[in-house]
């Protein structure tokens, strides 16, 4: 009986957590299917779904282009930050040298700076490189901003790997780059997927840099495009279209998390059990 009670309690707790996590998205979907005065009624299933909200999102602005920009920016951010972080994490996690701990904490400290504190400097850098109002400028800004966190996490994972693996590869004639690419990267694949997903989500949802470093629809990303959806007046926002755009933006993230769910869980639990 006690075991059954514990299972029921655990199941109830999981159900409550799932309900709390999933209800906001469910309500966004419900709201996206409403229009006019129906927005102010509590309907758990809209009697007359307004599917036109989804079509209006693409018809009234270049939302498809902003989706493509977000995918390019987020994908480039993940590729660039992971490519640099892997080698930096190898140096900080596997190589012993004087000042390594100080350098690690410096990297962690850099990641704690708020975006607004570095916004002016980032604007000057992107403008000097001729990347203002271009998705590549956003990708550069996001990669620089996510790189410290990525380096810190990957260095912790690589530091837990047995040093005998690296020594055996070096004895077999592998170069340091070969050790990283052929030995450490496959072993830290769950950690790479986890940090890559976090970097992708951060770049996909980021708003402040995207608002400051872009000017036209050719370079804007979806958070800015959603913010620019407007109605007849400032007091008449088309919440149905806003929610429809939010649902469209959220679905790719849900799909990615479901596809890489096992890798993400393995990356989050890597190193939790030693034996």
Q: Write the CATH architecture name of the domain at 61-228.
A: Orthogonal Bundle
Report helical residue fraction. Answer: over 70%
Number of strands: 0
- SSE string, helices as H and strands as E: HHHHHHHHHHHHH
For the record, the CATH class of the domain at 61-228 is Mainly Alpha
Q: Helix segment count?
A: 13
What fraction of residues sit in β-strands? under 5%
* Structure class: mainly alpha
Taking the sheet with the most strands, its summary is:
none
Average pLDDT metric: 85
* Straight-line distance between termini: 34 Å
Poorly predicted parts: 271-275
Rounded to an integer, what's the Rg over CA atoms? Answer: 23 Å
Sum up the structure in keywords.
275 residues; mainly alpha; MetI-like fold; 73% helix; globular; disordered C terminus
Compact summary:
This protein is mostly helical.
Describe the structure.
It contains 13 helices and no strands. With 275 residues, it is an all-alpha fold. The two termini are 34 Å apart. Helix 2 crosses helix 12 and helix 4 crosses helix 6. The chain has a domain at 61-228: MetI-like fold (Orthogonal Bundle), CATH 1.10.3720.10. It has helices at 2-32, 52-59, 63-94, 100-111, 115-128, 135-159, 163-171, 176-187, 189-205, 208-213, 222-227, 239-259, 261-269.
Topology, pairings included?
Elements: H1 2-32, H2 52-59, H3 63-94, H4 100-111, H5 115-128, H6 135-159, H7 163-171, H8 176-187, H9 189-205, H10 208-213, H11 222-227, H12 239-259, H13 261-269
């Amino acid at each position: 009986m006690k075991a059954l009670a514990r299972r029921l309690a655990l199941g109830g707790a999981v159900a409550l957590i799932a309900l709390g996590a999933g209800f906001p998205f469910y309500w966004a979907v419900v709201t996206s299917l409403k229009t006019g005065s129906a927005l102010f009624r509590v309907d758990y299933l809209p009697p007359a779904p307004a599917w036109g909200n989804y079509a209006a999102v693409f018809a009234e602005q270049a939302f498809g282009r902003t989706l493509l920009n977000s995918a390019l920016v987020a994908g480039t951010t993940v590729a660039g930050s992971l490519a640099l972080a892997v080698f930096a994490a190898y140096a900080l996690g596997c190589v012993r040298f004087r000042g390594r701990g100080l350098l690690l904490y410096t990297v962690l400290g850099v990641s704690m700076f708020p975006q607004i504190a570095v916004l002016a400097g980032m604007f000057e850098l992107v403008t000097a490189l001729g990347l203002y109002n271009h998705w590549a400028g956003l990708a550069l800004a996001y990669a620089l901003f996510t790189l410290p966190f990525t380096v810190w996490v990957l260095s912790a994972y690589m530091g837990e790997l047995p040093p005998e693996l690296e020594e055996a590869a070096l004895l077999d004639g592998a170069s340091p780059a070969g050790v990283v690419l052929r030995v450490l990267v496959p072993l830290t694949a769950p950690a790479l997927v986890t940090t890559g997903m976090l970097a992708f989500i951060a770049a996909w949802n980021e708003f402040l840099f995207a608002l400051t470093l872009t000017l036209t629809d050719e370079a804007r990303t979806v958070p800015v495009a959603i913010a620019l959806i407007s109605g007849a007046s400032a007091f008449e926002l088309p919440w149905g279209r806003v929610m429809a755009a939010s649902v469209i933006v959220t679905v790719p993230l849900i799909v990615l998390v479901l596809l890489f769910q096992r890798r993400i869980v393995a990356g989050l639990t890597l190193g939790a059990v030693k034996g």
